Amino acid sequence: MQVVILAAGRxxxxxxxxxxxxxxxxxxxxxxxxxHKINALPKEIKEIVFVVGYYGEYIMNHFxxxxxxxxxxxxxxxxxxxxxxxxxxxxxxxxxRFLVMMGxxxxxxxxxxxxxxxxLAVLGREVEDVSKFGIIKxxxxxxxxxxxxxxxxxxxxxxxxxxxxxSKEIFNYDLVPIGGGEFGLPQTLAKMAKDHAVKVEKATxxxxxxxxxxxxxxxxxxxxxV
Length: 226
What we know:
Blueprint: E1 2-7, E2 27-28, E3 31-32, H1 33-39, E4 47-52, H2 56-63, E5 66-67, E6 70-76, H3 82-89, E7 97-102, E8 105-107, H4 109-115, E9 121-126, E10 134-138, E11 144-149, E12 158-167, E13 176-179, E14 182-184, H5 185-192, E15 199-202, E16 206-208, H6 212-221
Parallel strand pairs: 1-4, 1-7, 4-6, 9-15
Antiparallel strand pairs: 2-3, 5-6, 7-12, 8-16, 9-12, 10-11, 13-14
Helix pairs in contact: 3-5
């Protein structure tokens, strides 16, 4: 299997930390966030496809064409038009079924391993404050029905963690615009879910890195992801 890691953005909420360096290359315990993510990939993942943009050469110089026994491919996103736009740029290098993840969050290997057992899937995590996240609505079979962005309240409490198992059939669907010239991957997957069952797996642990405080907290919790 391949993994597509979306790592083109700057990460403006990181403030001065991303002046001249892409957010996924910021370090936790002396290693870039991306390296921690790759170390959590199960052995079934044989190739890494990075979608790079802002100071992408930092990522290319670090991971080169092979990293820890895995082939590495690069796709360039100059127009930052959202997660959907980023994935669709990589369509020509993707094979039938692949993993997709964001470049700046931490996930656990056992959660990824559970996810890739399914043909199509999304990883969710129970949260208290639904207003901060995209919330996954499911049916009684545990399949995704839709994703609602930052609802004020919801009986569904599973936040979308930004990890998906997707097939190339997604490219048969038009990207869903989400405003500001961006296209949303989760929204496009939700459109696909009307025709194909998308399993929702629950994450045991997830650490989103959105601001400097999250990065500092990652230093304290990174041992939980090993």
